[in-house]
């Protein structure tokens, strides 16, 4: 993200609760949620201080700078959406790696998916536990999959590979399983935790997302839904509350979550419930059963 050193203001996309990220190669600030982009301002839009906006966090471009300072003799390249915008450029960069023309590749997570680097023997992941933060049910599952893919890039040919993960939570089951190379241990721990909480696949979930440009309208529908919940056994409704992304493209968002035992007819419950509430045209209601995303 980008913030002001003078007043602490964090730059966000217009009408969206999403931080802007600096892309130094293009000289622009980008919202990775909506795709909005803009030139980096010369002054803070909040306090007016000039030359006070700085990027915070270990972005790929900052890591590249430090790599070049630490290893000035190494041939360094970057794999990101700015430097590798299409399949042709990706193939060219990978071929350069295979030909021994690149010593260090600084990459985003895109490089972990579906690409083969025969000469790669060492992988380092910065902020490896970043995806574990927040309230996403599948955060551990997604993080394990991504890190397993990333670390699996090393040592695919005749040379052995090694992976280093930077983490604040080395005791987390995801990091423990990766360090031990024990996928079954992660699956067992994750399934036990979900079973204890009656979460998928041992239970059912549904997310109701309300959004509107009219904040009062979305608040009213959210309250009406909360007051109209049918009586049901082995089922709980949580909310309404602000969605994790409470403002997207000028639309206010509220969320209700339903958790039900596996044998409960969740769709029938939802039909009865939604029939009790009138949703005006100004409010959009989205129902996602067993959602993959919790934003």
Automatic annotation (TrEMBL):
PANTHER family: PRIMOSOMAL PROTEIN N (PTHR30580:SF0)
Species name: Brevundimonas diminuta
Keyword Heme: no
Cross-referenced Pfam families: Helicase_C (PF00271), PriA_C (PF18074)
Taxonomic placement: Bacteria, Pseudomonadati, Pseudomonadota, Alphaproteobacteria, Caulobacterales
One term of GO molecular function: metal ion binding
Protein's UniProt keywords contain Ligase: no
The entry's keywords: ATP-binding, DNA replication, DNA-binding, Hydrolase, Metal-binding, Nucleotide-binding, Primosome, Zinc
One of the record's GO cellular component terms: primosome complex
Domain Helicase C-terminal residues, every copy: 39-197
Protein name: Primosomal protein N
Gene Ontology biological-process annotations: DNA recombination; DNA replication initiation; DNA replication, synthesis of primer; double-strand break repair
EC code: 3.6.4.-
